[in-house]
Amino acid sequence: MILDDVHRGIQKYRKRKRLGRGPGSGQGKTAGRGHKGQGSRAGHSRKPTFQGGAMPLVRRVPKRGFNNRWGLKVMVVNLGEIDKAFDAGAEVTLEAMAAKNLAKGRFDILKVLGDGELTKKVKISAHRFSKSALEKIEKAGAEAITLPGKTPVAEKKAQAKTAKK
User: Fold this and answer.
1) Positive or negative: CA dihedral 67, 95, 100, 126
2) Ranges of Gly residues compositional bias (predicted)?
3) What is the mean pLDDT, run by run of 10 residues, along the chain of 165 residues?
4) pTM over 0.90
């Protein structure tokens, strides 16, 4: 092996391929497009899923399940987890829950559920509360603060109907 061979042919900035610049360039005449046909014409583009007229794999594979693109991503936290993580008199906000790893990842709405017991007086801020969670929060003498958040599409439609009447 010759040491000089290691770097031969490697350039920091590769020159662009100049198409259709005569026969001496190696990319002249048809400029890599071949002879005739759809691909040789200007403005040609084909769907990435096109498979030569055969039924594309995307359409051949059966679809399963349900996916609501417009549905809200709801993060749930139980009262028992809040009771363990926070001391009495603490303000339980979205940021505080994220810091304690109770509300991880991306979500649109945070909902507090009534699983577990709440023994401390805390101020809990969330977008939604379940009925059992609200009862337990009241019973413990704590405070539930409802944050404004995105409303589901169904609720928006219902609000629009009542506004028209």
Assistant:
1) negative
2) 21-31
3) 82 89 92 92 90 92 89 93 94 94 92 94 95 95 90 69 76
4) no
